[in-house]
Structure formats: C-alpha cells, structure tokens
Write a structure and sequence with these properties.
This protein is α+β, with helices and mostly antiparallel strands. It has two domains: about 325 residues, Bira Bifunctional Protein, Domain 2 (BirA Bifunctional Protein, domain 2, 2-Layer Sandwich), CATH 3.30.930.10; about 80 residues, Anticodon-binding domain (Rossmann fold, 3-Layer(aba) Sandwich). The chain is about 40% helix and about 20% strand. The model has no long low-confidence stretch (mean pLDDT about 95).
Length: about 425
C-alpha cells in the first residue's frame, strides 16, 4: 500500500503551494505597509509555556512529548505565548509600541474537519504597549487591509465584544461561575437551545435568567450594527450592570467610533455572544466571520493585558489576532477567489533549431539576472510542444531562437495572448521584456 500523508495533514503540490505562497506574499506586504515588523519563533517550545496560559483546550490539543533530556516540550499549538516570551526577553530595549506579525506553522491534535487540520499556518498580528482601544482599531484596520488584499473584500465582517461587559452581564443574570458562563456563551451559535440552557444552568444562572439571556441573544441575531449599538448598550447599562461592565461598554463605544473614522463601519457589529475561549483575554475580543452561508468564524483575537506579567515581564497592555490558513482558504474558494498558483512566467524561450539550446540557456540566464521570470525547454521537445508548455506556464511571451527566416543576431518575440510576432535584436531581449 502506498504511503500517504497522515490524517489531518495535507500535501501542497504545485500549483497549490504557489497559490498559498501568493496569499502569504500579499498578507506580508499589507502588514508591512501598516507598520508591522516580522517576527519568527521556534516550532518547539517548553510545554510549560502553554499550561495555565492558553486555557485547557489548547494545552489538551498540544503535540506534547519529552526530549532527550526528559523535558516536556510541544510542537507550537498557538503563537501568542511565544510572542510574550520573546517580548519579555527584549522588553527593556524594545521601543513602544511594538507592532509584530508572524507566520507560524501550528500543530494541534484535534479532530480534522473542513477548515481544520492538525497542521496549519497561522498569520498573527500583535500590538504591545498601547493601553487604549486605538490598538484594536489599528489591528482590525490592518486585518481588513490583509483580507481585502487577498481578495476577500465584501466576504467578511467583524464581531466585537468586551469580556468585562460579558462577565457583568452574566452576574446580572445570576451566573456564579464565570469560566462556565463564558463556555456556555461561546457555544451559543454552535449548540441546540436546550443544551445552551443546560450549560447556563451549570454556570449558576437561574431559570428566569436563562430565559432573559436567551431572549437577549435572539434579539442580537447576527450582530448589532454600529448605528444601533449605543441604544442597545444604554439599555444593558440601564439594567444595572456593575462598574467594570459599564467600562467595557464604554470601550466598545470608543472602538466603534474609531473604526467608523477608519471607514470600517460597514463591516463591524457588536455581538455579546463573542467571548473567545482562551483564558488570557482580558477585555476586548473579536472575530471575523463570513457574511454568506453559515456565518462561520474566519479568525479571532482579543486583548491580553496580563499575559506578559505571567511570563515575569513588566506590566504591558497587548492585543492580537490570528488568521488560520485553512478557514481563509475556505472563504476564498467559496467565492471563487482563490489564486491560480504561482504568478505567470514572463518569458519562455523556445528553440526552433536543436543545435542552439546553449543560446536559449544564455538568454534565460540573462533575463533572470535582469529581474525577468524566464524558463526554457530541458527535454529537447519539438517547437510546437515547447509552445504548448509556454501556454501551460501562462507565459506572457515566447522568444523563439533559431528560426530559418530570422536574420543573424535576432530572435522572434511572440505575444502568447494575441499571437502577434516581431523580430527583436538578440542583445535587446532583456530591455524588451
């Protein structure tokens, strides 16, 4: 039986690898235009990094093993703890604010399904050192730029919430166990109503509270648009929310105002059911979701103001998000916007005279040195098959060497889209590209 990739892992042969590379190129370019600098961390970390810092789910999904020194280590299941560890090491010399982006391979031992594999790429954006929601505004504006650059414009929107507001909401309706309450709320869109009620009951919410919360979330639907958020939050505050929850509501108002100024009000909603599962989030949380279909989550993030201190670093406010390659690919494919693969080849050098392959290789090397993508036949195929190969490679033009009717010192340039031909001086092929 032939060997295959392990369950939950994928191969990416051409042109798929090229398409993925093109997506990452666009994302890198957008992040750099927004002032983010690239950071790279290791693929193996101490397992201690994830215990009690990432929440039970991530630690349970880690590919953990013992190294030759019997130390518990893990393939990286998420990037934020590594970012925190690296920042602590550099905190004394790093000017604020810090704006980093990372592209990391991630491993999680979980059940494979559409949009979820056991090995995937994650694109992270993080801002450290900014206590106010201006950091969230910059982060979400950059995320919008990234998504638009890869072709997802119009396909997504952002759901925003504040965990302090959600915690206050839970206490208002009788929740006695905040982690269990968050777990119930996080699953609101994923479980049947009866199960949602049962999980609220386990968090200590009494029957009348379950009824009121269910009715409140039903009113929210797919999210409250910015034009209605102030009225909705005023109503929540009027029900008797505690001070920390009222501060969360004010943060949301401020953030929505900043996003409106950035021209993003058309793709933002307030959604009290978004709490995110990771234990280290402290206030603002958000998700991108697909506007069409089942409104599935595309990526998520939030503020983690105390994580740096858990790693014995100085008090440092921080906020970040992580975009997984699998969910992004599903979003783009569903809209027919996934790229074809590697960018098209500019020039394919065709040899009409079998005696002149060295000249073809010389032209190819000259073009490559001039910054032009170029290739030629290596299999001594006929001229017609070489031209078919040029078309398969989506080449813009073919340079044909050795045609009998071509004068010495010249080649024929053929436009492969129109078929138009002209003679080009051999010493001018790089300039003509």
């Amino acid at each position: 039986m032939p060997l295959r990739a392990l369950r939950g892992f994928r191969d990416y042969p051409p042109p798929e690898a090229g398409a993925r590379s093109e997506i990452l190129r666009r994302m890198r370019s957008a992040a750099r235009r927004a002032g983010y600098q690239e950071l790279e961390g290791p693929c193996v970390e101490s397992f201690e990094l994830y215990q009690a810092k990432s929440g039970e789910g991530i630690a349970a999904q880690a590919w953990m093993f013992r190294d030759k020194g019997e130390r518990p280590v893990a393939l990286v299941p998420e990037t934020t703890p590594s970012i925190a560890r690296i920042f602590v090491d550099r905190a004394k010399s790093e000017p604020m604010p810090v704006k980093w982006f990372t592209i990391s391979k991630i491993w999680r031992y979980e059940e494979p399904q559409a949009g979820r594999t056991r090995e995937f790429l994650q694109f992270n954006l993080d801002v450290l050192g900014v206590p106010g929601v201006a950091a969230e505004a910059d982060l979400l504006a950059t995320a919008a730029l990234l998504l638009d650059e890869v072709g997802a414009g119009g396909l997504y929107a952002f759901r925003l919430n504040d965990r302090a507001l959600s915690e206050g909401l839970g206490r208002l309706y009788g929740a006695r166990d905040t982690p269990l309450f968050f777990r119930a709320v996080d699953g609101y869109r994923k479980v049947p109503p009866a199960q949602f009620g049962s999980e609220l009951r386990a968090a200590g919410v009494p029957p009348e509270g379950i009824e009121e919360l269910t009715a409140l979330f039903a009113r929210v639907g797919t999210g409250i648009p910015p034009s209605d958020v102030d009225r909705f939050l005023t109503e929540l505050v009027g029900r008797g929310l505690e001070e920390s929850a009222r501060a969360g509501a004010e943060r949301l108002r401020t953030l929505l105002g900043l996003l409106d100024s950035a021209g993003l009000a058309d793709r933002v909603v307030y959604d009290p059911t978004v709490v995110r599962g990771l234990a280290y989030y402290t206030s603002t949380v958000f998700e991108a979701y697909a506007r069409a279909g089942d409104a599935r989550s595309v990526f998520g993030g939030g503020r983690y103001d105390h994580l740096i201190e858990l790693f014995e670093g100085p008090p440092t406010p921080a906020v970040g998000l992580a975009i997984g390659d699998q969910t992004l690919e599903l979003l783009l494919r569903s809209a027919g916007r996934w790229p074809e693969g590697e960018p098209p080849l500019d020039t394919y050098v065709v040899v009409a005279n079998p005696a002149r392959p060295p000249e073809a290789l010389a032209i190819v090397e000259e073009l490559r040195r001039a910054g032009v993508s170029a290739d030629c036949d290596l299999l001594e195929r006929s001229m017609s098959r070489q031209l078919k190969e040029a078309a398969r490679r989506r080449s813009r033009r073919a340079l044909i060497v050795g045609l009998k009717e071509t004068p010495p010192g010249a080649v024929v340039e053929r436009d492969l889209a129109t078929g138009a031909q002209r003679e080009v001086a051999r010493d001018a092929v790089a300039r003509s590209a």
